[in-house]
Amino acid sequence: MNSALLNSFAFVEGNSFLSVFLLLFFAGSGASIRWRLQNLHLWEAWVSTVFVNIFSSFFIGFLVATNPASEVVTVLGVGFLGSLSTFSTVIMQTAKTIENRDHWLTVLILGSNIILGVLFAYIGLRFG
Length: 128
Prior knowledge:
Helix content: over 70%
Radius of gyration: 16 Å
């Protein structure tokens, strides 16, 4: 088994039912909120993706800076913020822009996600 899978089992085995339930609940909530935001169609899909990714980056930085218990980082950081943000959607949106030969949008999507994500994580660390 790979180490990520083993670590997942270790979290389940090493924590209470409530911790595991909260992890699953917050993961489902984060993914649901992201899905809802992307389906409001208030703006282009890639803009929604940038928004949820920088929001998540800020709050994961803030969360880490507050130095909470590891269960809190797992439940909120990995569960909620990890499922709210989305690496796979960024990659898929980028691949589609490359396929459509829209190089400017490709750079904009990647640049905004990476640069703003790192910037907002740093700001979160500073405010935490």
